Amino acid sequence: MTVAVTGELIATRKVGAFTHLTFVAPGVGEIARPGHLVSVAVGDAVSALVARRTVPLHAVTPSGTYGGTVDIVVDGDRDPGMRWLADRRVHDEVALIAPLGRAFPLPQEPLPCLVVGVDTAAAPLAWQARALRDRGCPVELVVAGSDDRHLFGVVEARRTIGNVTVVTPGETGLHEPLRAAVRAGVRRQDAAIVYAAARAQELAVVTPLAESLGAVTQVAIHEDMPCGTGLCSACTLPVRGRDDRVHSIRACSDGPIVRGARVVWDQYLAGLAGELEARA
Ligand code: FES
């Protein structure tokens, strides 16, 4: 079930390089879970933008004092649509559809988990970590970003979860320190599941490493999803089926959470690079 509402913006604040927005959205908080998406209409009569952007829900509250709210975190430097969103002011109204997609699955029994997030993709992870902890799972977090201003949720995660490793780029970039943090995190607690949220480049690094260390990976795809509802087919993701054949699913409606081991990462990365080239 999804809810389509016109949400009034009731709070906006800068968090490092990102913008944290809170909208009134009755009915979403009752049904949304960590990993779900929200599709947001961007643009107006004067902006020349007519599209949607789809981002993970950072947090929700059920109907109460403010009638139910959803929180999102956007990077205004990512593209003009995200800039338009980041520039909204309190009392502006935006059309929202949520919750969309597939949420993070929770283990049936308490298992040690490592939760990994990069840049704004990390937005839902403190929520997911709390859900895991409430199920009795020991949880550690790895929060990564391209610099200190692009780390999201470290303070909240330290306050609510405690075990947080922060990763920023080393001399050779982000991938090597990210790999080292994931390796150490999985080994330290013998993690059975790694939940990771990031762009494909980082997920393609984290997934094979975590699987090679014996963990199951559940990954949140954080690539462009124009509609978020499964209609535009702009977010195809190659996955390997049970019959070992590769087929395409839609990252927004069949994901954004998928088993990392199912994704054919080299094919996916090549497809994303081709799209970028075509747009240039
Ligand atoms: S973003 Fe349109 S189908 Fe996924």
From TrEMBL:
Tell me which domain of life the UniProt entry assigns to the organism this sequence originates from: Bacteria
Mention one GO molecular function: 2 iron, 2 sulfur cluster binding
Protein's name according to its UniProt entry: Dihydroorotate dehydrogenase electron transfer subunit
InterPro entries (alphabetical)? 2Fe2S_fd_BS, Dihydroorotate_DH_ele_sf, Dihydroorotate_DH_Fe-S-bd, FNR_nucleotide-bd, PyrK_electron_transfer
Pfam families on file? DHODB_Fe-S_bind (PF10418)
Dihydroorotate dehydrogenase electron transfer subunit iron-sulphur cluster binding domain location is 223-263
